[in-house]
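Exercise: predict the structure of this protein bound to adenosine-5'-diphosphate.
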Amino acid sequence: MRLSGFTVAIDGPAASGKGTISKAVARHFGFAHLDTGLLYRAVGAKVLDGQAAQAAAEALVPGDLEDDRLRSPEVAQAASRVAAVPEVRAALVDFQRSFATRAGGAVLDGRDIGTVICPDAQVKLFVTAHADVRARRRFDELLGKGIETTFEEVLADVQARDARDMGRADAPLKPAKDAVQIDTSEMEIAVAVEAAVSLIKAKMAGSA
Ligand SMILES: Nc1ncnc2c1ncn2[C@@H]1O[C@H](COP(=O)(O)OP(=O)(O)O)[C@@H](O)[C@H]1O
Ligand SMILES: Nc1ccn([C@@H]2O[C@H](COP(=O)(O)OP(=O)(O)O)[C@@H](O)[C@H]2O)c(=O)n1
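Solution:
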C-alpha cells in the first residue's frame, strides 16, 4: 500500500461536517490532518487586530493557529473576507502543499483542497448539508463553548460566508469534478465517517 504522499482532500461549506470526518479519517488511517480554515481564521484574527491581510498571511507561524478565539463567529467572518484576497491565498499555498505530501499520508479540509491545493489528491470528498441543519449544529457547538449567540445570527453567518466563498473569483468553493459528494443533512456522524473510510480503503486498494 502506497501511503507516502497519499492525500485526502475534504471540502465543503461552513459546518457541513468536514472537520469531524477529517479528524476521524486521520485517526483511522494514522494520517496527519490540517484544518486549512484555521489558516484563514488566523489571518482574519490578525486583521481584526489591525494588521494588513497580506503581510499577516506571509508572516503566519504554526503558533498562530493555537488561539482559542479563532473559533468565534467574528473571526469566521473576517476569515472569509481575507480568503477572497488572492495575495492571502497565494501566501498559504506552499505550506498546505508540503503538508499534503508528507510521508504517512495526509488529510486536508477546506474549500479549495480538491480544486486548487491538491488537484491530484487520491481521494476527494465534498461534504454538504442544508444550511439550516449546518447552522443548528454550529449554534449548538458555540453554545457548548459558552459563546453567546442566536440561531438566526449563526444562520446568517453561515449563509453570508457560503455566498462569499462560492462567489469569489480566486479558488471559489465548488466540488472538484472528481469529488464524491456526501450530504450529511440526515446522516449520523458515524455513518458519514464510515462512508469516507470505505471510499478511502477502496482507493488505497486500487493504488496499491
Ligand atoms: N453528521 C453529523 N450529524 C450531526 N452533527 C454533526 C455531523 N457532522 C458534524 N456534526 C457537528 O456539527 C458541528 C460542525 O461540524 P464540523 O465537522 O466542525 O464542520 P466543518 O468542519 O465543516 O465546519 C460540530 O459540532 C459537529 O460535531
Ligand atoms: N481552504 C480554505 C479554508 C477556509 N477558507 C475560508 O476560511 C473561512 C473559515 O473556514 P473554516 O473551514 O474554518 O470554517 P467552518 O467551515 O469550520 O465554519 C471560510 O468561510 C472560507 O472563507 C478558504 O477560503 N479556503
